[in-house]
Amino acid sequence: MDENPSDLLKQAIDAALSSNWEEAIKLNQQILEVDPKNTDALNRLGRACFEVGEFTKSKKNFQYALELDPYNQIAYKFLKRIDTFCKKGHKMPLPHNYSPVNSELFIEEPGATKIVGLLKVAEPQKLSLLSAGVLVNLIVKNRYIAITDQNGDYLGVLPDDLSHHLIRLIRGGNKYQAIIKNIKTNSLSILIKEVYRCPRFKNQPSFLDGLNVNLAYSSNLIVHAEDEETAFNEGDEEEVI
């Protein structure tokens, strides 16, 4: 293999993020030719095989990944999904962490929806296992809102000003849903939609154009994603929206 391993890794992650599963299979196989015990590559290859309906190959890769790392939660969760699909006779897989989504949730409405880029996002390997259009959880902490997938795994946090704004509305009675809108190597954006407005906020839109959600220069945002994920996992008072 002539290509630089780091270049192959980036290409493999990009292929998964763009749902180019055949290319993802080829690239991760190339990585494994050099590093057969690379559990991240095994996870990605297993997921790519799963997406094209090659359940036997997918299961084999995830089983080997779990053999190498018994605490590999990605492999463990996918193996459970594969067994479920095979038992039910599914021919094609649903997206990872799939939950049925009402098509109306995709419709943007002034004042009621907002597309926002998450901060302190999870590592690219985790992002590469996500799919656009699936539901995510809004977890209200004391001072911020974290975003998790349907398995409760950390994905990122909302910008501080938007978190503070929504926490006030949520605790006042408003309800929201969110879906993954766009995934890139080091970024993740979601669409948040107001699905219920409390009467006390009847004249107050949830989202205003003037609400600044770009806090790139705020000093308290210069935190590695792992630091935020560690804080998230260590526990805090929370509400799942």
From TrEMBL:
<dbReference type="InterPro" id="IPR013105">
    <property type="entry name" value="TPR_2"/>
</dbReference>
<keyword id="KW-0677">Repeat</keyword>
<dbReference type="InterPro" id="IPR011990">
    <property type="entry name" value="TPR-like_helical_dom_sf"/>
</dbReference>
<protein>
    <submittedName>
        <fullName>Uncharacterized protein</fullName>
    </submittedName>
</protein>
<keyword id="KW-0802">TPR repeat</keyword>
<dbReference type="InterPro" id="IPR019734">
    <property type="entry name" value="TPR_rpt"/>
</dbReference>
<dbReference type="Pfam" id="PF07719">
    <property type="entry name" value="TPR_2"/>
</dbReference>
<feature type="repeat" description="TPR">
    <location>
        <begin position="39"/>
        <end position="72"/>
    </location>
</feature>
